[in-house]
Amino acid sequence: MQTPPVTKYLPFPSVVLPNRQWPNRTLKEAPLWCSVDLRDGNQALAQPMSVEEKLEYFDLLVQIGFKEIEVGFPSASQIEFEFCRRLIEEKRIPDGVSIQVLCQCREDLITRSLEAVDNAKSVVFHLYNSTSPKQREYVFKATEADIISIAVHGVRFLKEKMQPLVKSGTQIKLEYSPESFTSTELPFALKICEAVTDAWEPTENNKIILNLPATVEYATPNVHADQIEWMCTHLTRRNLSIISLHTHNDRGTGVAATELALLAGADRVEGTLFGNGERTGNLDIVTVALNLYTHGIHPKLDFSDINHIRDVYERCTRLEVPPRQPYAGELVFTAFSGSHQDAIKKSWSQQKPGSAWDVLYIPIDPADIGRSYKAIIRINSQSGKGGVAYVLENDFGFTLPKLMHKEIGRLINDLADSRGTELTPELLFTTFEEEYLKRTSPISLQHFKASGSDSSVNAEAKITISGVSHELKGTGNGPIDAFVNALSTTTLPKFDVVSYSEHSLGTGAEARAVSYIQIRTGTRTLFGAGIDTNIELASIKAIISALNRLLASR
Question: Measured between alpha carbons, how far is 125 from 19 in angstroms, rounded to an integer?
Answer without folding.
Answer: 35
